[in-house]
């Protein structure tokens, strides 16, 4: 078979069945795959525990050293593993460099993908060809430290569905990012939290492209990513119940040029909007919105009972009703919406409660101020003023509350 041939796939592809040239031992390591999307099978190979995908495009200068490092780290974990390089037919022949390493080290597979491109779809392609019970992804540019893979493997105990390498937990960070890049990264995360609080709020670093996930979490999911942030797709559409996070420091490139461009942020926004417009596929988002509605209803009922039935004054009634809504929101989110997060310790519970009171309490004060302004300046009736203020300010308080409090933590 020539280098440019494309091997058609069955519904359950067997990479070992691909025929390659017997004349070149390096090319014999390369599996030619097309651009057609394949499903992620529910059953893997019982002998393979971890399948780590490395998507690449023009990474010939980095891939050799990265594969050697990853192979050494995974070997030390004692887990049965495979490394899968998915190269989008790079002009610099990255796939050929990877194949040379694969000819020397066992457990490395190289897929040369033609007819399609894109990081997220390359990851899905790799998972579709993977054999392991645990699937994963790491960038091929060397900016994700290979040694952190061992921490992620250790975090994938019998209860963990997704283990994420995060820059935003203690011990994590970035190396030499400019202020503008830091601002763009945080801004993108904040935008994601506003549009998809139930998804983005589950982890501290939703932009991470470095994580492991159990095969059964994504095997039945309708994954359809846009751009390069595959973790968002997994959290939104996968059956994710428990998440663990481990710190890592994002490194600078040793070789090659960064592929981050304005188009990536446009793709990220498209991805967010696609997920946002299909809320029924995101169970956490539906739950978040239901909790918000229940808290608003409880807030209104308590206010009516205290103010109308008990005859208390307007400000005190609205303050007590608001506090009831806050506490109900905390309880329902912890017990239902974000129940799949890592178990929280006492310190984190205190931090969360203080954050709730700061975030929601501040806006509650604003709501009380708005009610009094509407009643005293605009001569609106107390009940009408309460309803107007409730509708205008409370949704913002829930968004702010989720930003400050309901976020994934390291167990």
Give the termini distance in whole angstroms: 50 Å
Low-pLDDT windows of residues: 1-22, 407-411
Radius of gyration, in Å, reads 25 Å
When the domains are counted, the total is 2
Structural class: alpha/beta
**Sheet with the most strands, sense and barrel status:** 8 strands, mixed
Count of alpha and pi helical runs? 13
CATH class of the largest domain: Alpha Beta
| N-to-C series of helices and strands | EEHEHEHEHEEHHEHHEEHHHHH
Beta-strand proportion: 5-15%
Shape: elongated
Q: Give the strand order of the largest sheet, numbering strands 1, 2, ... along the chain.
A: 1-4-3-2-5-8-6-9
Instruction: Indicate the multimeric state.
Output: single chain
């Amino acid at each position: 078979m020539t280098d440019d041939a494309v091997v058609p796939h069955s519904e359950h592809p067997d990479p070992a069945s691909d025929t390659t040239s017997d004349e070149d031992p390096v090319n014999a390591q390369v599996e030619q795959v097309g651009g057609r999307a394949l499903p992620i099978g529910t059953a893997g190979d019982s002998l393979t525990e971890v399948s780590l995908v490395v998507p690449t495009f023009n990474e010939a200068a980095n891939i050799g050293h990265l594969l050697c490092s990853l192979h050494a780290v995974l070997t030390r974990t004692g887990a049965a593993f495979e490394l899968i390089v998915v190269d989008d037919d790079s002009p610099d022949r990255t796939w050929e460099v990877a194949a040379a390493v694969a000819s020397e080290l066992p457990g490395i597979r190289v897929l040369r993908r033609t007819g399609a491109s894109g990081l997220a779809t390359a990851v899905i392609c790799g998972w579709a060809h993977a054999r392991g019970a645990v699937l994963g992804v790491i960038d091929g540019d060397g900016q994700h430290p290979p040694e952190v893979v061992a921490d992620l493997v250790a975090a994938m105990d019998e209860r963990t569905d997704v283990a994420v390498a995060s820059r935003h937990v203690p011990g994590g960070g970035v190396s030499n990012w400019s202020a503008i890049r830091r601002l763009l990264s945080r801004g993108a995360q904040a935008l994601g939290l506003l549009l998809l609080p139930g998804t983005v709020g589950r982890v501290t670093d939703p932009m991470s492209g470095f994580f492991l996930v159990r095969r059964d979490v994504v095997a039945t999911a309708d994954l359809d990513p846009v751009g390069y942030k595959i973790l968002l797709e997994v959290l939104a559409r996968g059956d994710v119940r428990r998440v663990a996070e481990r710190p890592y420091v994002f490194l600078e490139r040793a070789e090659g040029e960064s592929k981050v461009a304005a188009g990536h942020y446009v793709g990220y926004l498209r991805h967010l909007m696609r997920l946002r417009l299909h809320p029924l596929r995101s169970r956490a988002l539906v739950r978040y919105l239901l909790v918000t509605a229940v808290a608003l209803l409880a807030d209104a009922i308590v206010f009516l009972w205290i103010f109308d039935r008990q005859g208390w004054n307007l400000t005190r009634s609205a303050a007590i009703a608001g506090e009831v809504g806050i506490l109900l929101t905390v309880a329902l989110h912890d017990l239902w919406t974000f129940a799949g997060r890592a178990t929280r310790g006492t310190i984190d519970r205190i931090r969360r409660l203080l954050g709730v009171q700061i975030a929601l309490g501040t806006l509650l004060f604003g709501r009380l101020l708005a009610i009094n302004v509407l009643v005293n300046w605009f001569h609106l009736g107390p009940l009408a003023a309460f309803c107007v203020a409730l509708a205008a300010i409370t949704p913002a308080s829930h968004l702010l509350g989720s930003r400050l409090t309901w976020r994934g933590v390291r167990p």
